[in-house]
Amino acid sequence: MTGWIHRAPGWAVALVCAYAAVLLCVGSIAHVTDLLRHGLRPYTWAPLWLNLYWSSLALFDTLAALLLLRGRRLGVDLACLIMTTDLAANWYAVYGIQHSTFVDEPGLQRLAAFAVLVLGTAPFARRHLRPALAVSPVER
After folding, report:
1. Which residue has the higher pLDDT, 85 or 134?
2. What dihedral angle (degrees, nearest 10) is formed by the CA atoms of 109, 113, 114, 119?
3. How far apart are CA 16 and CA 125, in angstroms?
4. Among 3-7, 21-25, 66-70, 130-134, whose mean pLDDT is lowest?
5. What percent of the chain has pLDDT over 90?
6. Which whole number is the average pLDDT over 108-112?
7. Sign of the CA dihedral with 40 first, then 42, 48, and 52 last
8. Surface-to-core class of residue 37, CB atoms within 10 Å of its CB (0-12 exposed, 13-18 middle, 19+ buried)
9. How many Cα atoms sit within 13 Å of 85 on the Cβ side?
């Protein structure tokens, strides 16, 4: 049943990983900029725990991007974790705190589209990437 996942072309996986890495870097830059401008609590309307989570993405987005560019499965796993939790956090912020809707929030729409890309391509990408502790012939 999952045989078609194993036949994903390597070039397509590399392209998706590079695209995801670039978008994770964009997110990282946004979070670093917020940290530099406003400290650990850049969104005064949000609770502290949510601010700390978003601030931590400055590190985790960068780490996931680097792992993806190095061809590591852990990069896909971390990107999936980030996208799932970030989408949940933003959804909570939009609906639970700001009392807005998905239609009114283009940032949430972009995040949801990126989450669909990451989560939808993860099974294809993982098959082609190296485990976290694998050593390539060049690194030996």
Report:
1. 85
2. 130
3. 8
4. 3-7
5. 77
6. 96
7. negative
8. exposed
9. 14
Count of CB atoms within 10 A of residue 50's CB? Answer: 18
Question: Rounded CA gap, 64 and 24, in Å?
Answer: 7
Instruction: Determine if the pTM surpasses 0.90.
Output: no
Strands (E), the chain: none
CA gap 114, 84 in Å, rounded: 10
Q: Which residue has the tokens 């045989």?
A: 3
Q: What is the mean pLDDT of residues 72-95?
A: 96
> In 10 A of CB 110, how many CB atoms?
11
Q: Residue 4 has what pLDDT?
A: 55
